[in-house]
Amino acid sequence: MKPYPRTGEMPDRRRLAGLPLESYAALGDGRSVALSGADGSIDWWCVPNMDSPPLFDRLLAEESGGCFIVAPRQPFTVARGYRPGSNVFETVFTTATGRAKLTESMNSGHAGRLPWCELARRIEGLDGTVDFELRLVFGTRADTICPFLARNDNATTFNAGEVTGLLRHSDGVTLDFEDDLEIRGSFTLRPGDRETVAIIAGENEPLIAASVEEIDRRIDIADAEWRQWSDDIGYSGKFGEAVNRSALALKLLLYSPSGAIAAAATTSLPEGFGSGKNYDYRYAWVRDASYTIKAFLRIGAKAEAKAAFSWLIKCLDTHGPHVCYDLQGGLAEDVREYDLPGYRGERPVVAGNQAAKQHQHGIFGDIFETAARFVGNGHILDRRSGAVLASLADLAVESWRTKDSGIWELSELRDYTMSKISAWQGLARAVELADGGHIPATCRDRWARGRDRIAAWIDANCWSEAKQSYVFHPGCDTIDASLALAVRFGFDGRDRLEKTIRAIDRELGAGPFHYRYGGVENDEGCFLACTFWVLEGLALLGHRDEAERRFAEVLAALDTGCGIYAEMVAPDSGTYLGNLPQGLTHLALIQTAATLSGQALS
User: Fold this and answer.
1) Distance between first and last Cα of the chain
2) Within this chain, do residues 563 and 520 fall inside the same structural domain, yes or no?
3) Is the pLDDT of residue 585 over 70?
């Protein structure tokens, strides 16, 4: 548990601006994710699923959004952190009159995920006396719903759109005010005192009115389940604490009803202030899911890797190759804007994603690399999966010459170098899978010829003698940081790859971090996964000592929050930017740490 270097002095519990993103911890149950801030306010929770409309949306509507506050009435400071090996989170509040500890959990049971959402918060007195307030505020989702309370013989429930919920609290909590938009309460803690408050919620379904005693016990059950999962992870290399925490973050993003892996748990958090780069990441990208599957395989999380891989193959079989899918396995929706002010006033606030209709050659490399790592770990491809993969290899060899939107999902179609490398990667792995008897080899020789033609085309068209680097696309002088991945992919040409990584450092580096590509410095922060890709590439090229030193520097620079990382960071201030928890960041960290530890790629 670490001190948080800000004071929670907010007498009316409203802030002048949203909390820094690095001040949020993520809670989850394999279905939904809640974000809990350093001021005791849960500001984001989509119920019942990660991609459902939010029950709490204060993150995107500071003055009018829904939230769930448990915090001292007096000014306070906090020390906070996850329990070791767990996604149960603890905060110690210190006031002028005493100290108290808040423990938070999205509860599960001994048999796994509960068939309802259960957000539990236990508060214990440690020293002195601390007066607490409780506030449950119901947002209106940009005035599209009208929340209301309903009373019957069994309980008072709240209704917000399709969600029905129940506030549970222990006897020492007094409810001081209730109306359709807000519930307020209070309690006082002394050493040894303990109170629990919780929300049970579901969507268009009956609710189990569990007792507060049951809910409180499930906090420790959930903690034990998280610890057992962590203990089973097969990673014993360097930077073990960071790897374990990133693995736990990735586990939060695995949507257990289907096996999909969400790119992040939020929408519309800005990649840069004033840029308008606000996107919905509550979808499963082929790229992110593939990389996460490989990370899970590398740390021994076999069940998660299998579930995600099966989901991915089924989506590709059902819908054909798309950039991303929804968490249930359908096609992603078009972008819709909502009339909300946005995080710190940054608009737009959106649902849906424009990448749904794009094509990226990267999906070929991603899915085939995943399949290769899956069988490389000794696992088995069934005949149907093999047939799906073979048909994708046919499509890759047929379409690699076409322009696409690239790994960065740009609106201008071009011959992006990284896209061509990904097509090469896909065909290279397809040939290996066919040679190993894992997929049908009916067009194996054609795949091999296509692989070799792509490599020759890249070397002839994408290398810049002036830059001493591969460039973003032929005819430009812009560098693309994602090209560092070519080292992991096994693309030929050690000398050119090393020069490319040095050019990325030279032209895109900002302190220990890196921008995605040239020209975005004024629009967005540094892309954290790119930095990890660069360091992994250096290690694979034989510069392990340098990469390890720089990796430690990056972790130290990011150590301003709870171990939950966003997509980007402002290099001058260390402020997090973009959606969170960001799966791509956490899985890139895991892969780099494993490479630095000398573990074989898997």
Assistant:
1) 33
2) yes
3) yes
The structure tokens 């960041």 sit at: 585
What does the pLDDT read at residue 313?
96
pLDDT, residue 529, reads 98
In this structure, is residue 534 part of a structural domain? yes
Q: Do 162 and 296 share a domain, yes or no? A: no
Average of per-residue pLDDT values in the chain? 94
Calpha distance 585→564 (Å, rounded): 10
Number of domains in the chain: 2
One domain for residues 327 and 440: yes
CATH number for the domain including 199? 2.70.98.10
- Is 508 within a domain? yes
Give residue-wise pLDDT tens across range 326-364: 999 999 989 999 999 999 999 999 999 988 789 999 999
Whether 172 and 113 share a structural domain? yes
C-alpha atoms less than 13 angstroms from C-alpha of 190 in its C-beta half-sphere = 0
pLDDT above 60 (res 11): no
Burial 102-133 (b: 16+ CB within 10 A, else e): bbbbbbbeeeebbebbbbbbbbbbbeeebebb
Q: What CA dihedral angle connects 401, 407, 413 and 419, to 10 degrees? A: -10
- Establish if 409 belongs to a structural domain: yes
- For 297, the enclosing helix (H) or strand (E) is helix 286-298
Q: Which amino acid is at 102?
A: L
The answer on 282 and 136 residing in a single domain is no
- 602 located within any domain: no
- Contact call for residues 238 and 597 (beta carbons, < 8 A): yes
- What are the pLDDT digits (tens) for 513-532? 999 999 999 999 999 999 99
| Boundaries of domain holding 53 | 2-229
Same domain, yes or no: 335 and 217: no
pLDDT, position 142: 87
Q: Give the angle 240-242-571 at the CA atoms, nearest 5°.
A: 145
Of 536, 429, 519, the C-alpha closest to 483 is 536
- pLDDT on residue 110: 82
**Are 292 and 323 part of one and the same domain?**
yes
Which residue is listed with tokens 């896209």? 419
DSSP-assigned letters across all residues of 533-569: HHHHHHHHTT-HHHHHHHHHHHHHHHTTSSS---SEE
* pLDDT tens-digit series, residues 232-257: 988 889 999 999 999 999 999 999 99
Q: H or E element: which one contains 283?
A: none
| DSSP-assigned letter for residue 354 | G
Give residue 566's Cα distance to chain centre. 7
pTM flag (> 0.85): yes
Instruction: For 406-421, write each residue's pLDDT tens digit.
Output: 999 999 999 999 999 9
Give me the CATH number covering residue 451.
1.50.10.10
Shared domain for 248 and 330, answered yes or no, is: yes
